[in-house]
Design goal:
elongated; mainly alpha
């Protein structure tokens, strides 16, 4: 339970910081990824939407709502962002995403094994 709260708090606070500084975030994403994603509108829209999705997923994990879906959604978003970070060569940004991916994978498999134990009993 504490690990779930920690993971959700990390994800929600990261998303919230991106929302608070949304202009700086979108500018940074544009500068880093404009060569990778040729569609400027798609790039700017994605960079503006992802922090809100990240914040929402963090809240879902904190409040234990949509358990597997929230964990899986956070995992997929972190994988997507990791791929873009690797493609842009900004490897320092991988630290956050690798930690989050490990935590989400652990929580997901823990959730899955807990459900299997309930079914067996």
């Amino acid at each position: 339970m504490k690990l779930r709260l920690l993971t959700g708090s990390i994800i929600a606070s990261h998303g919230l910081l991106r929302i608070i500084f949304i202009e700086k975030h979108t500018d940074s994403v544009y500068e880093s990824f404009y060569e990778i994603i040729p569609f400027e509108t798609l790039l700017l829209a994605g960079s503006a939407i992802f922090p809100f999705v990240e914040f929402f997923i963090g809240l879902l994990i904190i409040f234990n709502l949509g358990k597997k879906g929230a964990l899986l959604g956070g995992f997929i978003i972190s994988l997507i962002m990791s791929a873009f970070i690797i493609a842009s060569g900004a490897y320092l940004g991988l630290i956050y995403h690798v930690v989050v991916i490990i935590l989400l994978a652990y929580l997901y498999f823990q959730q899955t094994s807990t459900n299997r134990k309930k079914i067996i009993l």
